[in-house]
Amino acid sequence: MTQPPLCIETIRFDNGQFWNIEYHNDRLNSTRQALYQSHQKWDLAKLIVPPAHTKSGVFKCRVTYGEVLEKIEFEHYQPRHIARLKLIEANDLAYSFKYQNRQILNELFAQRGKADDILIIKNGFITDTSYANVAFLDSGKWLTPAMPLLAGTRRAQLLKEGLILEKQIRVQELSNFSRTRIFNAMIDFETATSLIE
Q1: Where are the alpha helices (DSSP H) in 84-151?
Q2: How far is it, in rounded angstroms, from Cα 85 to Cα 118?
Q3: Average pLDDT over residues 128-144
Q4: Do residue 174 and residue 95 come from a single domain?
Q5: Same domain, residue pair 157 and 70
Q6: Cut 0.85: pTM above it
Q7: Same domain, yes or no, for 90 and 45?
């Protein structure tokens, strides 16, 4: 019997503190139940022992797991500047779990041309960039696609707090929006604005 692929959680560790750890726990545990039929609840805050050198600064904590915890890695976070997004159609793409294997996303990313990242269109609807969720400003409200490729942890938090709203967004509607933001566990929602080619 083929084993399900490994998955990952990427967590922001900022000056000795994990961001949104409860949302990462929720996604990790629901993923483990769906893919590996595990009902054991993990608490990442108890499983992860941060190295001493990570107490100051911003680090990316990457947890690789399957039925068991495979490895935990820390690396200093270097933000990527994303100014331009290129629309890429991928109707058959499925990435509803945060798999370790990102080959298909990397292949799509390679089609970005002179843009910094891609904005993936699936069956005429906006989904995500290659590594982040997205939101669009419309009359003072930030709207995020109701059908993302991957429901991010930061997205879940922003929805719960009412800072963004879900909407099915067709590619033809992009011209209606005045601003675009990309965000994920590492990118704060308030900091990144991008343009679409």
Answers
A1: 103-109
A2: 5
A3: 95
A4: yes
A5: no
A6: yes
A7: no
Q: Tokens 């692929």: give the residue.
A: 5
How does pLDDT run across 113-132, given as a tens digit for each residue? 999 999 999 999 999 999 99
Are 28 and 98 a contacting pair, CB within 8 Å?
A: no
C-alpha span between 69 and 71 (Å, rounded): 6
Average pLDDT of every residue of the chain: 94
Look at residue 176 in the predicted model and tell me its pLDDT: 92
One DSSP character per residue, 150-167 reads: S--HHHHHHHHTTSSEEE
pLDDT band of 3, cuts 50, 70, 90: confident
**Whole-number Å distance between alpha carbons of 130 and 20:** 21
- 2 in any annotated domain: no
Tokens standing for residue 95: 């990435």
Domain that holds residue 91: 84-196
Domain-located, residue 1: no
Domain count, the chain: 2
If you search the block for the tokens 């590996």, which residue do you land on? 36
CA distance 48 to 58: 16
Considering the domain architecture, whether residues 60 and 39 belong to the same structural domain is answered as yes
Contact, 42 vs 32, CB < 8 A?
A: yes
Structural element, H or E, at residue 131: none
Task: Taking residues 86-115, report their average pLDDT.
Answer: 96
